[in-house]
Amino acid sequence: MRIIPKKIEGVKFGLLSPDNIRKISEVRVITADTYDEDGYPIEGGLMDPRLGVVDPGLKCKTCGGRVGECPGHFGRIELARSVIHVGYVKQINKIIRACCRKCGRILLPDVEIEEYRTQIKKAKRVGKSELPIIEELLKSAKTPKECPHCGEEQADIKFEKPTSFVEDRNRLSPTDVRERLERIKNEDAEVLGFDLEVARPEWMVLTVLPVPPVTVRPSITLESGERSEDDLTHKLVDILRINQRLLENIEAGAPQLIIEDLWELLQYHITTYFNNEVAGVPPARHRSGRPLKTLTQRLKGKEGRFRSNLSGKRVNFSARTVVSPDPNMSINEVGVPMLIAKELTVPVRVTHNNIEYLKQIVKNGPDKYPGANYVERPDGNRVSLGKVKKIEEVLERIEVGWKVHRHLIDGDVVMFNRQPSLHRMSIMAHEVKVMPYKTFRLNLCVCPPYNADFDGDEMNLHAIQGEEARAEARVLMRVQEQILSPRFGGPIIGGIHDHISGAYLLTKKDTKFTEDEAFQILFISGIDEPLPEPILENGRRYYTGKQLFSLILPKDLNLVYQAKICKKHKVCKKEACESDAYVVIRNGQLLSGVMDEKSFGAFAGELLDRIVKDYGTDEARKFLDRATKLVIEVISRKGFSVGIDDEDIPKEASERIEEIMDRAEAKVQELITAYNEGILERLPGRTIEETLEMRIMQTLSEARDKTGTIANEYLEQESYIKGKDNNSRIMAVSGARGSLLNLTQMSACVGQQAVRGERIMRGYSERTLPHFKRGDRGSKAKGFVKACYKKGLDPLEYFFHAMGGREGLVDTAVRTSQSGYMQRRLINALQDLKVEYDGTVRDTRGVIVEFKHGEDGADPARTDWGRIVNTRKIIKSIVHESIKDESIQDRDGGR
Amino acid sequence: MARIDITKHELVPKHEVLSEEEANKILEKLNITKGQLPKILITDPVVKKLKTDVGAVIKISRTSRTAGTSTFYRVVVAE
């Protein structure tokens, strides 16, 4: 086929005139019947063969084309009486009010009309919208009581939903409306916003109805051989039937009343034919009671033609199933079930080099893995290997230039996606690893970018079909290329949960392994680096956790930072820190500090960030793969479980907490008394009530925080005494899961419950529950939960807690839908802006939006957490560079 | 009331009218026509002050949070 390049200059929308409708129509449809007894379409019926073909094998009576060639042809229904088009009632309403009932002129003096005309012209010239001007004209032309042109007195026209107009209690028939619109002069219509080339006011009232081609409303044949018609055909049958009856009644000279009833009915059917969801009109229903899907419903909304068939389409070569974790895979891989690998194919061109291999694959056929499902001849014709009787015949014919659609094999590049696809890391390129069972397997480090968990999440996979696409996906979309997020310039792929607690356990101060243990751990995690000198204790050889972890660090890495567990003391003791929070890595040796969320955690990994930025994505992938395997092996060996006894606090602590609570409550009472006596000092810009509320809230939240600190203190102390840290606390401090607030709520005090950011105020008059006195402003009466989760909430506390909790749930539900819609609008507005190679941001017309992307032209993913250069870090690294040199000498001298 | 010179206000960035050659140089560098530049109305208070004609290219130097200063170009258009 020869392609003729054409450029679309513009698109113009207009109204179909009755003449136009007749001109495009091939058939005048007159009967409501579709098929005769023999099942043949009736001429002049809705399935007239001249309207196009839908049955394979038949030829179109109009153009002679077959199915696929013939686009279908329009027909028409000549309406017995005019009918208003629902889509235009609003415009009709505005225009009919702005024009004289007798002469049809705009109800404004000529001077004013001319004034508006020049304004509109000007707006068009500058490229502004003329709509606000027309809107204003229509508004000012509504008021005059008398026509300035013919002097006719104007009556008030009321619009009665959905399609009628009433003037002084007389109903205007569509014919009346049409006559009025006809009277509007061309010059006036122009000022009213009509483009006379394509529209005239009276065309908004229908006299002829176009009948869409059968290709638009194909009937389907059910298994039983019964024909089932499209909703549009059903609706058109209704229209035809009523139209016919109306015509007969008019010709027979039936009484006005009957004619008007039928006319109304015709209006109803045509209204619902266009839109079956008009306010005030009962929707037309199918025999089964289901509302019909008519023209507007076909186009509108998420399931409409635009959003579901044009902006988004269903695709081939894709698969979807549940995801589950596999910590032994690389982050770049995705586990694909055998079943899916046999269904999805990749086209491979046959060459001299691969012909033998591909022949073997074709020989395996569609059922034996690795096989092929199709072979494609150079002319593009496909042979399905599943349908072919003798594969051998196909095998003989295969030669260079053919294509084999072979099954997915290990190493194929595919795209993997989880909805909602909110950022570019929601679709990444993975390498296939074919596996047994029926789920997609993914490495845990890629959970954060996809926001995936394994409680039943499903994900999609797309097999790439071309060399160019494959290369592009591999270079740009590969998981390891997405480690750094353009959102904040740090790693978004990294360790989570057990990776963090495992790393903490491995690298904390006194973790050591016997030689045997160390060898096993390293073998399982696939680390085969040369081992350092072990430490000797009681004549046995040990490796410290830090030594093992150092094995996977780049050999010349130098890095200093404060770990997540850092308590931010005023004076930093650096290497001598009790909690080992000062991380020093010199020449790839972890000398001090513990690995936690800030080492290689997603969103926070300082160390991982350094590795990606200084050593590249390959090194970073290797590091992540090995680090997570190592750390998981360590945590599996050590064991890591939590229980409620993790939240046990000594009696002493409970007493102190009790005391703080009592004191806080007393303070609240004090504040209330001060308020009642009128001696409470008002805060600037607040009422006295607001002041009281704020002070109470502040007092209570301080008290809660204090109890939290106490509980944490004891938990920490306890860990020193027992010589073993508490696992719940480890998770909170290292950033693996949970927070100190969670611990506080479990072991000390849940704290104030809030609704709408205030203490709980709602319920009965002047009190939240009937258990309190009216006007009680005490902590308990307004939803302060003194208990901790472990001790348990009393019924009143439980109720307040449920109130607060419910608000949280409602908020998230509302927020997701709102932010989803906002995102949709933003993307619609920004979708075709692009950063060009010269750093400018332009739209598709080449109009510049930004002269330098982000004003500095920086790629946020390559910045240091948003900053182009972080001077402090550079200085730090240089300073440590010099220390490093000394220490090397020291150590070498010592050996 | 004394008229305030808005160009002296700290929130008003520096506007300069480019000469014909300078403007052409910029257009050539960006490989665009004037129509593809962002627009600024001739009735814009600062443009009024610059007393220039429709079609002139104005260079605006703003302080930027990310880049120190950044330059923008705009073409003057009639209302």
Sum up the structure in keywords.
heterodimer; A: 895 residues; alpha+beta; Barwin-like endoglucanases; Enzyme I, Chain A, domain 2; six-stranded mixed barrel; four-stranded antiparallel beta sheet; 39% helix; disordered C terminus; B: 79 residues; Eukaryotic RPB6 RNA polymerase subunit
3D architecture notes:
The complex is a heterodimer of chains A (895) and B (79). Chain A is an alpha+beta fold and 895 residues long. Among the domains of chain A are: 87-203, no CATH class; 318-482, Beta Barrel (Barwin-like endoglucanases), CATH 2.40.40.20; 498-638, RNA polymerase Rpb1, domain 3 (Enzyme I, Chain A, domain 2, Orthogonal Bundle), CATH 1.10.274; 644-810, RNA polymerase Rpb1 funnel domain (Topoisomerase I, Chain A, domain 4, Orthogonal Bundle), CATH 1.10.132. Chain A has 27 helices and 31 strands. Chain A has a six-stranded mixed barrel. In chain A, strands 11-14-12-13 form a four-stranded antiparallel sheet. In chain A, a hairpin with a 5-residue loop joins strand 12 (372-376) and strand 13 (382-384). The longest helix of chain A has 36 residues, at 795-830. Chain B is α+β, with helices and mostly antiparallel strands. Chain B has one domain: Eukaryotic RPB6 RNA polymerase subunit (Alpha-Beta Complex), CATH 3.90.940.20. Chain B contains two helices and four strands; from the N terminus they run βαβαββ. Chain B has helices spanning 20-30, 45-50, and strands at 14-17, 39-41, 57-64, 68-77. Chain B has a four-stranded mixed sheet with strand order 1-3-4-2. The A-B interface holds A 126, 838, 840, 842, 845-849, 851-852, 854-858, 868 and B 30, 32, 35-38, 64-67, 70-73, 77-79.
